[in-house]
Amino acid sequence: MKMIPILSLSLLLQVFFACHTPHKGSIMTVNGPISPEEMGLTLHHEHVLVDFIGADSVEPPRYNRQTALEVILPYIKQVRDNGVQTFVECTPRYLGRDVPLLRQLADSTGLHFITNTGYYGAMDNKFIPAEVKMMTAEEMARLWIDEAENGIEGTNSYPGFIKIAVERKPLSDFHRTLARAAALTHKATGLTIMSHTGPSTGAFQQLEILKKEGVAPNAFIWTHAHNEKDSMKHVQAALMGTWVAFDAFRGGEKQTTEFVHFILNMKQHNCLHRLLLSHDAGWFDPTQPDGRNYAPHTALFDQLIPALKEAGITPDELNLILVKNPAEALTIRKRFIKK
After folding, report:
1. Rounded to an integer, what distance in angstroms lies between the CA atom of residue 315 and that of residue 165?
2. How confident is the model at residue 339, as a pLDDT?
3. Model-wide pTM > 0.70
């Protein structure tokens, strides 16, 4: 009798999902899919709420959702008043992801809100449950794929991207597992990978892991790339096809000068089509329910955009960076390395 070979879980995942990309070609918001053209002006990396207590204590939520809504809502209305149409909320599970809150904010403002699947491994894995640290990449990916296929925790909302986070140093074994799980999830779902990274060492190591899985660089957003001070590393990643994100702009003369320098360097090397900009602001803290620590999502409009215009960045280039690029980056589709 001829024996049938046993397939690895990784291969089974690839085979099972090979012909099915949920919501292919669309953008997934907490209220359902929209077309990329509907995104409009987009802040691709923001937070409305983050709870730093740790994975062992973060669920159920430690705050009153109505209280949080009342604090956060005026800031989101400011975002809308600046012309923003889509708000990408990057808080992952076990760090305060709250889909019902995001749906309330979306319904109250008319903005599109996008949430995520994935895990945050930075800060010594404080936001990773103990059982997850023991998982293989295949086991982790299976959980993220389930959210993409069946919705997030019974909310009938689906993730619009994969969010992971690694330390600002060479990847640990566990963070390599996170990156590989993200690659497997992308291959199954077409969701873009957004990785909190920082300096280039970890970014290029993650890109190498994706390459081994056959995932193209344009499926990857190098988050906090501004923490890499060698601006030619930004260019190198962009020329590979990677999305390069300068996304913790809070304002001030020093940071404005640095961001303008980085962006002009990208322009000089014809890489603006791979650039993303955002604030990484917000951060309602359950330990401060009066919201006194909340950082507005407006510094781009008040400081950076005027400085960029003065430096010669054109309206068409700003439209590319803030409208076209986020739509291209977050459109759900499988991106493989061409052979």
Report:
1. 33
2. 74
3. yes
